[in-house]
Amino acid sequence: MDAVVWIVLGVVLAVAEIFTTTLFLIMFGAGAFAAAGAAALGAPVAVQALVFAVVSALSLVVVRPVIRRHSRSALDSGEQPFGVEAIEGSTALVLEQVDAEHGLVKIDGELWSARSYDTTQVYDPGQRVRVIKVRGATALVWQDDVSSAGELPEARG
After folding, report:
1. What is the pLDDT of residues 134-149, one digit of tens each?
2. 98 within 8 A of 141, measured Cβ to Cβ
3. Where in the numbering of this chain does the NfeD-like C-terminal domain appear (predicted)?
4. Is the pLDDT of residue 82 over 70?
5. What is the reported pTM?
6. Measured between alpha carbons, how far apart are the two ends of the chain, in Å?
């Protein structure tokens, strides 16, 4: 029965971590799962609590800093960004009207579905926008400082 309690606690902490994304609660979740293992092996409650405390503390002191160091974005670490990080901050050409629900933009020669970052804004084909964030395969865009006045070279057929 003790193992089930520790497993439930571990799952609750892991789910709570999803909402906080601090890499703090998940370390206690790891401790709870380790304590569940100790309980499954028949350890008394005091030993289970000790396993929970030791594994949680070691996770916080040793594992969390390593994960955080490796999860820094390329922009923060001065490295060349790649993937989605390389797209965020770049300019895009609106190909199909972009609003809060849908749209299509061209980013570095690739077509991306897009939505307006500001849900009250609508961008027409030919306008230049800046990619603020990427969620899944959709670029959230904002009016660029250098908006188009007329047709852009890339908009010509």
Report:
1. 888 899 999 866 544 4
2. yes
3. 85-142
4. no
5. 0.49
6. 70
Tracing tokens 């405390």 back to the chain, one arrives at 53
Residues β-bridged to residue 32: none
d(CA 116, CA 136): 15
What's the CA gap between 139 and 112, in Å, rounded? 7
At which residue do the structure tokens 């020669």 appear? 109
Tokens of residue 64, six digits:
């969390």
Query: Contact at 8 Å (CB) between 64 and 71?
Result: no
Closest CA to 154 of 97, 61, 92, 74: 92
Residue 155 has a pLDDT of 41
Judge whether residue 49 has pLDDT over 60.
Answer: yes
Amino acid 60 reads L
Reduced 3-state DSSP string for 43-78:
CCHHHHHHHHHHHHHHHHHHHHHHHHHHCCCHHHHC
Phi, psi torsion values for 34, nearest 5 degrees: -65, -40
138-143 and 110-116 strand pairing: parallel
Q: What own/partner pairs with CB < 8 Å and gap ≥ 24 does 72-81 have?
A: none
